Amino acid sequence: MPAKTTAQRQKVLVLNIRGGSALPELRTTFPEAELTVVESSQIASWLSADEATLVDWQQAIGWLRQGGFDAAIILTAPGQSPYTLGYLCYLAGIPIRVGRSSEFGGQVLSHCAPPAQDDNALVDLLRGSGRSLAPALR
């Protein structure tokens, strides 16, 4: 991914299904990035389906594409999989997809770190995803 100039701020999508606020940690890690945080209730409205309502995958992928995101950080609670959201981001063409999982998911996540044992998951995830991640987003 070519580096953006300062006039072109990096656009980072944060899909937060673990709960809690990730914004303070993200602002510290990516001070120059334009952050879009999507909380679990919004994500649930995309993905929830019952017999009367089908998931509109094309609409979700279209929204992600229109956002023009350079990266997606998928925050999950222990036991939750990042792969459904990671795959949506992959289909939308988001080049950097970061998540935490103990399972193998192929290339759905471009940066995958093992689950953490503590609550400082975001910082551990970004450090564990490789030192190249933060510079790639700056």
From TrEMBL:
This is Uncharacterized protein.
